[in-house]
């Protein structure tokens, strides 16, 4: 052992012999613990956790292997030497707390201190007071331990272990018998004293509640350590108390963490699923309600690929047979050597969000239909009045009436977009597909927007890469709207003296047409990019897009591209403009949703 370790567990194995045969219940366990380090040994019931704890504290002996504490192999010590180590160097909080029922809390802690200091030696009162204060039980000092709740008794047992000022404390079943608030408070006490005193802590738990304070987590299954998670796994959110569902799988796909939120969302209990292959416990379906193939599951792909993260949307079946829609974020997990050894998945229930979104859309569609007729009437009346009074109105009156008509037209366009969104989402939008000449469509757009760009003092350039363009199947009006929305936005959000460049080309290898619109405007933040195509999302005031700041134009643009089985993306950095690119297949049949 090197002096940097408080505990060095070396190839510890334990064999249980029966009249018929022998079986290894612990096999080749290896790990080390440094001063101030907190280790969690996790696993389901009967995995060997408590037996390993008794061996590490000297209460039982391993069949083979070494337990090195304070430079001594406690597996080889004489009983007297072992008692000395246990009294002065090791703190032990066992599952069964074992108190002398006639002693008060203070007397219980004082007895442990006297054993550690040696019989006949005077125990400093502040030594006991400090141990009681650390565990928050000063107010209970005069109470009998037998009169206390289990939660307070557990703190007394911890105080009894701490008063000895041990190098290492072993806590078996660390949060067993505690509710959520009691668990959180107990773990906070452990975390605080470990950090301040550099006392090492080894805990066991059938649940992974204690991951929130652990530096490393070992998963024990059938007497074998199956996985070690680096502390980053805890820091990134494997605590059971985070606000989203989370589960972790090892490189064989076995569940090693299933947090409380995941239990709530899906109904499975962590002790029941630990050690099982995740997609034998959980069933997945696509958004179109088709089963997800094993090889396309993000957890499987992240293990064998080079991606740093994968995101997907899937229906997952709960323990009660209900299918719920989740947004999944999957990242690789790494072992001590930096090798990929599993995945961590966070899941967020979005079914409720979809229902709220649907209610918004329904309300907007109803309002739009109600506004449609009055706006048409107002616009017609204005046109009639302007025609009747032509030549008789003052310049000021004409300006006011013209502004009114312009705003009515804008409202009409907004109403039409709200109605179109409703049709798109309900599948009532039908594409009128024809064969389109893409260069001709782009030239028409150039002709339409060149005067607008000139008026805004923006240089507008359309550039074609390559000459041979096949026909593109699509709805001409819909695709013209896609181009118009992107070109108009680019011009409107480019400062005077800036430029907008539209480049279109054909990729024969992928059989698709690509169009990119780049401007030299202020650019977009990362947050804006993330939500740019989200309905009703409002960008910052200086960079708000069309549709009277309601965030509908780009949402419709993406929907129209999606209807053509295409893809659209946006790239930008603040201060460096933005580039919108979309791709359209040329041979794929286009159908309405």
Automatic annotation (TrEMBL):
Domain Histidine kinase: 366-588
Broadest EC class assigned to this enzyme: transferase
Sequence ranges assigned to domain ABC transporter in this UniProt record: 7-247
Record keyword Methyltransferase present: no
GO biological process: regulation of DNA-templated transcription
Taxonomy, superkingdom: Bacteria
GO terms for MF: ATP binding; ATP hydrolysis activity; phosphorelay sensor kinase activity
Catalysis performed (reactions): ATP + protein L-histidine = ADP + protein N-phospho-L-histidine
Residue ranges constituting the PAS domain according to the UniProt record: 246-276
Annotated EC: 2.7.13.3
Protein name: histidine kinase
Organism: Candidatus Wirthbacteria bacterium CG2_30_54_11
């Amino acid at each position: 052992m090197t002096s940097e370790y408080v505990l060095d567990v070396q190839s510890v194995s334990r064999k249980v012999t029966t009249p018929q045969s022998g079986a290894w219940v612990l096999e080749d366990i290896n790990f080390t613990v440094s001063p101030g380090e907190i280790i969690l040994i996790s696993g389901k019931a009967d995995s060997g956790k408590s037996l390993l704890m008794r061996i590490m504290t000297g209460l039982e002996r391993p069949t083979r292997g070494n337990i090195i504490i304070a430079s001594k192999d406690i597996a080889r010590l004489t009983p007297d030497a072992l008692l000395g180590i246990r009294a002065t160097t090791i703190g032990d909080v066992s599952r069964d707390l074992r108190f002398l029922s006639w002693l008060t809390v203070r007397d219980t802690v004082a007895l442990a201190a006297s054993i550690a200091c040696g019989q006949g030696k005077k125990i400093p009162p502040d030594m006991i007071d400090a141990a009681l204060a650390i565990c928050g039980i000063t107010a209970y000092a005069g109470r009998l331990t037998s009169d206390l709740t289990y939660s307070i008794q557990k703190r007394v047992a911890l105080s009894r272990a701490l008063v000895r000022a041990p190098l290492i404390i072993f806590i078996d079943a660390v949060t067993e018998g505690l509710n959520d608030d009691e668990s959180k408070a107990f773990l906070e006490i452990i975390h605080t004293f470990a950090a301040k005193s550099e006392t090492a802590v080894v805990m066991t738990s059938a649940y992974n509640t204690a991951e929130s304070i652990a530096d490393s987590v070992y998963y024990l299954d059938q007497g074998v350590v199956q996985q070690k998670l680096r502390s980053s796994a805890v820091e990134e959110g494997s605590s059971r108390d985070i606000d989203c569902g989370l589960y972790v799988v090892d490189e064989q796909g076995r569940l090693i963490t299933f947090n409380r939120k995941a239990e709530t969302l899906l109904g499975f209990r962590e002790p029941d699923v630990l050690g099982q292959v995740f997609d034998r416990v959980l069933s997945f379906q696509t958004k179109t309600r088709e089963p997800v193939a094993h090889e396309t599951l993000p957890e499987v792909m992240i293990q064998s690929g080079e991606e740093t993260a994968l995101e997907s949307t899937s229906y997952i079946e709960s323990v009660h047979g209900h299918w719920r829609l989740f947004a999944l974020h999957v990242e690789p997990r790494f072992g001590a050597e930096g090798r990929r050894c599993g995945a961590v998945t966070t899941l967020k229930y979005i079914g409720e969000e979809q229902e709220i979104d649907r209610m918004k859309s329904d309300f907007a569609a109803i309002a739009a239909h109600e506004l449609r007729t009055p706006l048409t009437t107002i616009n017609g009346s204005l046109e009639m009045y302007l025609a009747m009074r032509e030549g008789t109105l003052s310049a000021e009156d004409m300006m006011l009436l013209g502004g009114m008509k312009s705003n009515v037209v804008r409202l009409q366009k907004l109403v039409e977009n709200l109605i179109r969104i409703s049709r798109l989402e309900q599948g009532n939008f039908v594409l009128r597909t024809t064969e389109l000449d893409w260069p001709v469509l782009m030239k028409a757009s150039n002709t339409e927007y060149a005067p607008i760009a000139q008026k805004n003092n923006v240089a507008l350039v359309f550039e074609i890469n390559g000459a041979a363009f096949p026909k593109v199947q699509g709805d001409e009006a819909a695709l013209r709207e896609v181009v118009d929305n992107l070109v108009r936005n680019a011009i409107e959000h480019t400062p005077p003296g800036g430029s907008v460049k539209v480049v279109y080309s054909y990729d024969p290898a992928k059989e698709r047409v690509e169009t990119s619109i780049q401007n030299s405007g202020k650019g977009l933040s990362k947050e804006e990019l993330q939500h740019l195509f989200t309905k009703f999302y409002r960008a910052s005031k200086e960079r708000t897009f069309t549709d009277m700041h309601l965030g509908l134009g780009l949402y419709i643009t993406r929907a129209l591209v999606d209807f053509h089985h295409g893809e659209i993306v946006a790239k930008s950095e603040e201060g460096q403009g933005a580039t919108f690119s979309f791709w359209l297949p040329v041979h794929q049949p286009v159908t309405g949703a």
